[in-house]
Amino acid sequence: MKYAIPAIAMIMTTIGAADAAPRYIDKSAQATVKAMLKAHGGYDNWASAPSIRLEIAMYLAILPSAEGRTAKDNWRYYEVTVEPMTSNTLVNVPWENSDGYEVGLSKDTYWARPMTFDPTFQEPAPMLGWYHYGMINLPFLTQSDNTVLASGDDIEHPLSGKPLKTVTMTFDAAPGKSHEGEINLYINPETNLLAGWRLGTMYPELPGGVLPDTAPVPPGAPMRIVENYETYDGIVLPQAYTSLTPDASTAGTHVIMSASLSEPFPADALKAPDDATIVFQREK
């Protein structure tokens, strides 16, 4: 019996390591993130959702004019459905007027069907699935594996001038992998809600190990400011947010038209349809 306590302690340490994903550099960051998670509805509630479905519309005012483009091509309208703990993802682009989903993403395979929107700039399949999903769910994705969280310098809200707390996310990539760049979270100290962010990497770490070995970095990191929030199945998400240029003018506006965290994930649809192209296949 004298060996029982160390054995139990070892098991509990292993379980704790498996459950506790982020690494905090300082206690202030840990306290700020803990309060943010509570304000947004709680990590456990988010992680236990069978799926996260977001119907997203946005107008990208900053896209340059080009031959073949019209004002309509500045619009984006699509539905993203994600299984939160695997990051399996399906994207429906209604304007394509086709049956089924246009994009499917899983750990081993990304596929996309032919799409016609915007003749000069079409987001690649993983960007359609995870770019804005990753922003909208940033409070909860702070808890993903390999995430490092540290307090940063407080800033002023670029529109209201009110103070915002800063927490910086960087990433301890696994051996043989790379995840460059950082994400700055700007948090309202009065409400503890995420008030804005800058994305210096294309995606935060996503559960399920779905990102490629080298995570992509975007060409810029615009400031994004939340305009209002909505509660969906007990989880508080940014309902509308704006992308700002360096002089604080509007580069794009983004709206969640509807959302649900209670629907089953349509796993059978992850199989690539006959007209899909495999755009990423993980090496075994």
Summarize the structure.
This protein has five helices and 14 strands. It has 284 residues and is an alpha+beta fold.
H/E element string?
Answer: HEHHEEEEEHHEEEEEEEE
Helix content: 10-25%
Strand count, sense and barrel status of the largest sheet are: 14 strands, mixed
Report the β-strand fraction as a percent range: 25-35%
- Spans with pLDDT under 50 lasting ≥5 residues? 1-18
Task: Enumerate the strands of the largest sheet in spatial order, edge to edge or round the barrel.
Answer: 1-7-8-9-10-11-12-13-2-3-4-5-6-14
What does this structure look like?
With 284 residues, this protein is an alpha+beta fold. It contains 5 helices and 14 strands. A hairpin with a 3-residue loop joins strand 5 (103-105) and strand 6. It is globular, with a radius of gyration of 20 Å.
Question: Can you tag this structure with a few keywords?
Answer:
single chain, 284 residues, alpha+beta, 14-stranded mixed β-sheet, 5 helices
